[in-house]
């Protein structure tokens, strides 16, 4: 009769521990990536919107007026590093830009962040929890002329 030692009774325990730890480490890593990428994209969208608004306001009194500012804002967004299918026009905006006598606003958004980072379901948990949209908006107030 063969005598059982601790080594023979524990055979396979390391692979079970590895499998359990791998799932936990994977969830942690994917969760971090899943939360950091939307934050990075939100900052990028904000930067692109700010650049578009700055470029449009620089040409505030040029000939061509609104259409020229609109074309300049669109050119800034098109020249950004964002892929074409990640660029959407915000509601209420005309080609990434909204103009009024008192302010000029630029906005760009991504309507489906889940298409960038898909959610994973493990043990009944769905992660990462993503926002409905990622949006960057910048507004520049125009100087009002003082009367009198």
Structure characterization notes:
With 148 residues, the chain is an alpha+beta fold. It has one domain (11-141). The protein is built from three helices and five strands, in the order αααβββββ. The chain has helices spanning 6-9, 13-58, 65-78, and strands at residues 97-99, 103-110, 120-122, 125-127, 134-141. The strands form two sheets. A three-stranded antiparallel β-sheet has the order 1-2-5. The chain has a two-stranded antiparallel sheet with strand order 3-4. It starts with 5 loop residues before the first helix and ends in a 7-residue tail after the last strand.
Q: Which secondary-structure class do the elements indicate? A: alpha+beta
Radius of gyration, whole Å: 26 Å
Q: Give the number of domains.
A: 1
> How is the largest sheet built, in terms of strand order?
1-2-5
Task: Count up the helices.
Answer: 3
The main sheet comes to: 3 strands, antiparallel
The share of residues in extended strands comes to: 15-25%
Coarse shape: rod-shaped
Features:
single chain, 148 residues, alpha+beta, three-stranded antiparallel β-sheet, two-stranded antiparallel ribbon, 3 helices, rod-shaped
Map the helices and strands.
Blueprint: H1 6-9, H2 13-58, H3 65-78, E1 97-99, E2 103-110, E3 120-122, E4 125-127, E5 134-141
Antiparallel strand pairs: 1-2, 2-5, 3-4
Write a brief structural summary.
The chain is built from three helices and five strands, in the order αααβββββ. It has 148 residues and is α+β, with helices and mostly antiparallel strands.
């Amino acid at each position: 009769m063969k005598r059982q030692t601790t080594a023979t009774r524990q055979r396979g325990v390391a692979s079970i521990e590895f499998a359990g730890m791998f799932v936990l480490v994977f969830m942690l890593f994917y969760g971090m990536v899943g939360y950091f990428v939307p934050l990075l994209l939100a900052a990028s969208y904000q930067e692109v919107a700010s650049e578009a608004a700055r470029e449009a306001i620089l040409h505030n009194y040029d000939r061509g007026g609104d259409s020229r500012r609109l074309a300049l804002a669109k050119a800034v967004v098109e020249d950004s590093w964002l892929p074409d299918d990640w660029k959407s026009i915000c509601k209420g905006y005309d080609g990434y830009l909204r103009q009024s006598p008192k302010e000029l606003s630029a906005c760009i958004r991504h309507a489906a962040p889940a298409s960038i980072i898909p959610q994973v379901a493990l043990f009944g948990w769905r992660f990462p929890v993503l926002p409905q949209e990622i949006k960057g908006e910048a507004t520049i107030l125009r100087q009002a002329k003082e009367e009198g």
